[in-house]
Amino acid sequence: MPNEKPKAVVLLSGGLDSATTLYMARRDGYTLHALSFRYGQRHSHELACAARVAQAASVTQHVVLDIDLRKFGGSALTADLAVPKHRSAAAMAGGIPVTYVPARNTIFLSLALAWAESLGAADIFIGVNALDYSGYPDCRPEFIAAFERLANLATKVGVEGRLRLRIHAPLIGMTKAEIIRTGRDLGVDYSLTSSCYDPAPDGRACGACDACQLRAKGFAEVGRRDPAGPPAPDEG
Fold it and tell me: Domain residue spans in the chain?
């Protein structure tokens, strides 16, 4: 049908950035197909958040794929390594941290690409960010541009010219504060999200890992309290 909405695959971790990206794709008129991963991450609580965000955004389909990256290890998120806590901004900017999961976004985008081709979708959204981030190489514009070229070389629809595949990274040049302002304008309920790398068994954010600190910085800059953050000291 000529008025049918275009389909998009949106990578949805359950965190602040991916939730905002999902709502940006919805704003842009796409039919939403959300993709999450149970990859052996220590912060698997994020999957419950992803399910809640997907429901709130009325996605057409939400798929959770199982990939056990613990078999490879190499990251504090998938192996028995300590998650860094209370690092300074300078330390976070000083190199690639141990929370980097080897080739994670390449793996995730490859599977999103497979689903997009199966759906006949030309558009894939990912919530990577190159400003307020912890130095991950697979969050850079160069990586996104390179993967988009690969996507059009490596697929039947791309080679035959039936679709021009696009990788959208709408947050790539935004600060965390700008992301939060955008999400609030779009109606994102950030109380449904979790960004913490090392949450308590009940899902409560630690407040000290890099992801928690970057998130807290963003909310502080917009003058708002993080609705999913750790409680204030006087709240116990």
Answer: 7-223
